[in-house]
Amino acid sequence: MDKIALTAGALYVIVLLRAGGTFAVGWLAGAGARRSRLAGRISTPKFQRAERAIQRWGAPVVAVSFLTIGFQTAANFLAGSMRMPLPRYLPALFVGGAAWALIYATAGLGVLEVLGRLFSQRPALGASAVAVLLLAACGVVVYRRRRAAPSCGDTAADET
Known about the structure:
Distance between the termini: 63 Å
Order of helices and strands: HHHHHH
Low-confidence stretches: none
Structural class: mainly alpha
Mean pLDDT: 85
Largest sheet: none
């Protein structure tokens, strides 16, 4: 139990620094955009409505983003660039970060422990398990890229 608590504590500090830093970079990027050539585009009433909605309702999205893969950085950056107030952002960061740290500390340590036992007792089976995990990860990446890329038959002329 001490190992889980220590790991969760370390991961919590890491996620607070990383997500808080991403929020700060977003805040600075948003401030810079407001002073740049983009100022006219981001001062439209539609953009300002979206900004107010994120400022008001974005905290639950930020908190839940920690339970996703690949969305939390975008959510934290967007919260910063859209100037989500700190009294709304910080509780979402603390709650979402705690959930992330606990999940990764328990599940992550569990997977590492199982792989460690597998390698120590049956090295061939351990190597096979790691190979299967790597192949599965590569397969997911290839599938997503192929799905996102337009097919050869899709052209602009087909749409007209």
